[in-house]
Amino acid sequence: MKYVIIFSILITSFTAFAAPKSELWPYWNASNEQNTSTVSYQDWQTLLDKYLVVKGQNSLFQYDKVSNDDRDKLKNFLSDMAQINPLDYSKAEQYAYWVNLYNSITVQLILESYPIKSITKLGGLFSFGPWDEKVVTINGKTLTLNDIEHRILRPIWNDPRTHYAVNCASLGCPNLQSQAFTTQNTDKLLTQAAKTFINSPKGVSEEGNEITLSSIYKWFASDFGGLEGVKKHLLQYKAGIEFSGKNIEYDYNWNLNELK
Is the pLDDT confidence value at 249 over 70? Predict the structure, then answer.
């Protein structure tokens, strides 16, 4: 039994610090740029309007307040989303589709197991969170949250701001946006989310001779162009950060982004 416990701890520790690589799933790298129609995310927006509260520099979700009727509405929304073929739409619409799908599935996963202290408590015995669980079937292909983020969003769009768009229901994560992503507002939301996160202590914190950055900038440094790319990226949104001669530490808060 002792060895089983030790093995479990080792697996959990490894998973906690090992970020998936960006590896394209070629099937999803197609679009219909002639199609100017859009998907409706109104049902998701209604839930955000009702249960997402901005408090200080955090957006917090009122999981304990979600009614049974609204739980059903979320399930119906996800069912409707699963009937859509995103490849029929433009790349711009696809980006909004995948981000909204990811975020709404994450909220549903929390609601299904609530109350919990952290999303990392979900998943199997040797899992660190639910990200490798099969959660949705699109075009006959069963996907995990990791598939959506690391095999579709990251490699197709190659925009590091995607890390500010997808939300992992944790206090250390960039905020769940109060607006559903759309073709029209995506760039504005990404810029706004990046600026808010970087100018908050969970993004960048300076104290004495030490700078503490979100672990996102360690796990996904390659998306920003390595450490020097991370520094340039941060300075785009927060002028005056002094990296020279300072130690860089990383931190992340996995506690649930809930408002009680």
Answer: yes
